Each structure stands twice: as C-alpha cells, then as structure tokens.
Structure to design on (207 residues):
C-alpha cells in the first residue's frame, strides 16, 4: 500500500514538504509506504473545461506534470494534498492542479482515504484548508480525521518542526490514514462492497 503525497509548493523542500515528511515518517512506522511528488515551479495551466479528459482518461494538455502525477494517482491507495497559503488561499498552481487532477483522474480516487494539509507563516490556513477539502468532499472520498485542522505554521522548514502542535497533527493524519488503509484492506474478500454510487442529478438555478 502506498500513499501519494503532492507537494504543491513552488519550493521543493520548504514548509509544505517538511509537513509531508512528518506524515511520511509516521506512515513508515506503521508499515505504510509513501511517495512525495513535487508539483514543481513550472507554470501549471488551469482547467479550461473542455471535457476531453472524460474520453482520453487523462488531461488533454501534456505540457506540465499533471498527467505524470495522474499516473501515480491510479496506483495509490490514499492521498495527501499539501499546499502553502498565498493570499489566504492555496497557491495558484496547486488549485489549477487540483482542478485538472480531479477532472481527469477523480474516478481513480473515489472511496480512498485523503487529507489536505496547509502551511502558512501566520494566517489564511483555515480558508485554504477549506478550499482543498472541497475536492475531497465532492469526489466520494474518505476524509481522514485528525486532532485539529490540518495545518502547520512557520516561515521556514526549521520553524515548522518547532510547531509542536502542527507536528502532532501531521502524525495523527498519518496514523489515521494507516488505520483506514488497513481497515479497507482487511475488508477485501469479506463480501463488503463499495457503496452503490447514487447517480448525480444536476439542476440549474435558471432554466
């Protein structure tokens, strides 16, 4: 079992990465593998709503990391989405990436555990956390609980590690993720199937 963690920060080994490494260390202690994938600091185009991914099984645009991350999504058992706070919201590249990853690879993530993690120097964390959680909530995923909202504070990697409560929260995310993955694995072969997917009824405010 492997958990895929996406580091959406433009800084490869900054605060967001540090938070994810704490999760990775705790997962390893509990017998679960993980991989941190860096989104990079190259431009990530936003979703244009073309719908081509529904037929292609991948994003139509192949000039950034989205499809390579999507290939890893297909084989992962759980997910952690990490992003820094920019102007009280997740950084723009991460929002663009999430839009396209969930449009093109959302079906591969259904009924799997997921958590979002945000990092900030001071504020904007709860608003950013809310943005990332909406992707999990709209996609039939299992939101992993923790002991508080999933955030760390610090202006550099070293300061994040001094955020004792934040570090504890990251460890709790890992512990709960490992527990859920083991529950799901143990349920295989018991006859317990995934829930019946209720067909979505889409309505418009103006007809």
């Amino acid at each position: 079992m492997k958990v895929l963690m996406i580091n959406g920060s433009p800084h490869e080994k900054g605060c967001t990465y540090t938070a994810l490494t704490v999760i990775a260390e705790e997962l390893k202690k509990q017998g679960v593998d993980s991989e941190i994938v860096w989104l990079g600091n190259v431009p990530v185009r936003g979703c244009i709503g073309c719908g081509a991914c529904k037929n292609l099984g991948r994003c139509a645009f192949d000039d950034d990391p989205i499809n390579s991350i999507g290939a890893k999504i297909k084989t992962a058992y759980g997910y952690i989405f990490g992003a820094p706070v920019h102007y009280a919201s997740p950084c723009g590249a991460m929002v663009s990436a999430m839009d396209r990853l969930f449009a093109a690879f959302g079906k591969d993530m259904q009924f799997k555990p997921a958590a979002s993690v945000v990092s900030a120097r001071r504020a904007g964390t709860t608003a950013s956390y809310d943005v990332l959680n909406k992707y999990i909530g709209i996609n039939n995923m299992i939101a992993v609980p923790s002991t508080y909202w999933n955030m760390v504070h610090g202006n550099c990697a070293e300061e994040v590690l001094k955020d004792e409560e934040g570090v504890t929260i990251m460890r709790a995310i890992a512990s709960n993720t490992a527990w859920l993955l083991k529950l799901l694995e143990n349920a295989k072969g018991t006859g317990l199937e995934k829930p019946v997917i209720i067909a979505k009824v889409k309505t418009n405010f103006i007809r």
